[in-house]
Specification:
The chain has 293 residues and is α/β, with parallel strands linked by helices. It has a domain of 198 residues: 3-Layer(aba) Sandwich (Rossmann fold), CATH 3.40.50.300. Helix content is 48%, strand content 15%. It has 15 helices and 8 strands. The chain has an 8-stranded mixed sheet with strand order 3-4-2-5-1-6-7-8, with helices on both faces. Strand 3 and strand 4 form a beta hairpin. The protein starts with a helix and ends with a helix. The structure holds adenosine-5'-diphosphate and magnesium ion. The site of adenosine-5'-diphosphate has 18 residues, from helix 3, strand 7 and helix 11.
Length: 293
Amino acid sequence: MIDLSPLDLWRRNPLQKILDTERRMREGAPRTARVVSIASGKGGTGKSVLATNLAVLRAQRGERVLLVDFDAGLANDHLLLGLAPSFDLGHVAEGRVGVGDALVEGPCGMRLLSGGVGRHGLANPTRRELERLFKALRPLEDEFDLILVDHGAGIAYSTLAHLAAATALIVVTSHEITGLSDAYALYKRGRMVNPELKVGMVFNRVPDVAAADSAWERFSGACKRFLGDVPTRIGTVPADSAVSESVDARVPVCVFAPGSRAARGLTEVSRWPQIDIARSVTAFYERASRALR
Ligand SMILES: Nc1ncnc2c1ncn2[C@@H]1O[C@H](COP(=O)(O)OP(=O)(O)O)[C@@H](O)[C@H]1O
Ligand SMILES: [Mg+2]
């Protein structure tokens, strides 16, 4: 059963939005958004499933959340959210639309900036193109509490530029040796470009907890031995048919089947304390631009 009622409630309840804004003002929330990157070494590990669900789960908590689909060229967050955006990052990069016009509203009031399908220029941007894009995205930091960036697999130039400026990174991996080895390479590069980076590891699509435990033992053992430190294990999401059903329904699993094992694992990830404290004094996109130089 698809139960969209919390979503509809949110949309129809402007009072809640006013109360939330007042709460934020009382709490003296910072003006600029917290920015959290979501990446993986290997492709198809479940980054987009995690990113879309995280965006919805955090929006359900009353945060103003923006998801930027930076898997440019192979973007599919809009599909997972059941959205059909008219504009995407490519249009923004080309200066054809203002960044505000490219945002679309998704479940629970979260917003998406889509990556666009087949935008190969954006998949391998030059330094100048990235710089222009970061400048265009900068105003968004004042409009949102949390910006989640869904990256393409691997260690692309644009991913490294984000990691150099980010305060938190979520690495999504399978429990298999290939996934672990690629996640290790990403972790190692992330620490190199940004020694302050807080890294959280998520094991996705695992057959059982024992498989994730044993993968974590191997992974953290290698990190300790060769790098001298380890990331934080922040959650385990089981392989769950509710996920593929939710993908088919184009509704994130945390709304489609909130009681499913996958939704519970994703909720655990959404509570990583670094997501709350990943704030910075200077603007993220300014630091990301500087990292390009
Ligand atoms: N926990 C899970 N259980 C079952 N299937 C999953 C799970 N996570 C992801 N999938 C499946 O894997 C596919 C790829 O996931 P996706 O998030 O698009 O990967 P990525 O963004 O890393 O390339 C999804 O379409 C979904 O069907
Ligand atoms: Mg993806």
